[in-house]
Amino acid sequence: MRTWRRLGLAFCAVAAVSGCGFFDGEEREPWRGKVEAACIAAKLVTKTDFTRPIDEIDGPGVCGLERPFRVYALADGSVGVQPSARLGCPMTAVLNDWMVRSVQPAAQARFGVAVVEVRNMASYACRTRNNKRGGKLSEHAFGNGLDIGGFVLADGREISVLKDWRNGTPEAQAFLREVTAGACGAFKTVLGPGSDGHHENHLHLDLARHDPAGRRAYCRPKPVVPDLPPEPEVAPLAEEPAISYAPKAAPFDGPTGSIRPRRDVEIMEPPPGWDEGED
Prior knowledge:
Domain Extensin-like C-terminal: 38-220
Mean pLDDT: 81
Number of helices: 5
Organism: Methylopila turkensis
Helix content: 10-25%
Oligomer: single chain
Region (Disordered): 241-279
Largest sheet: 10 strands, mixed
Protein name: Extensin-like C-terminal domain-containing protein
Radius of gyration: 22 Å
């Protein structure tokens, strides 16, 4: 990691004739190394057949991460990532949690089957937001962001952000909005179709810090979860003889499939001078 700043300055010196907006003024925030180290120490992500540590990514410039993983699957290997992604420990851990708490309950509620694969459109890449020349570095440059283009269901159906966000079946549209709402707060930036023109074909998820405490989340479009359709009416059963005791039902402790944005985070409005392109 000690070479990041030195290489960035050297690159700018060489490229001064043509301008060096890529690294100019960029420094690696101290919180990045701290949260990565804490994640590793807590063993939130460990070596498995589907999550494999890879060599340190050191530059160019301040890009990279010390303890990256090659992620082939999420949720204990039950959801493939295709193609595989290069991500940091914090991003991998939150993706696993989101898959279990939001994505799978939404898939079961809307389709009656599980998600078995996500379509990865971008993970680690040393670049600026939306590849904008002179722009701020993207969270992708730190292994701290993932772009998802779609979800593959166990029955073979694929739910595409591009095709289904606006023109899909009611179930597909509701599913995409539900998983987006479930991502808001777990991730600190969530962008999808209608956010800024750069995310019409994918959901961008990252763990950027928008405030010192890392509590604020920036989510566009604002999360709105459609209600589940009403249960079909069932004809009443024939009256049964009365019983002298009340039967006990086992308490249900599983997910409900209705995921709302987290309430322990603040959904922020864009601050003055905010660059809408966060991807």
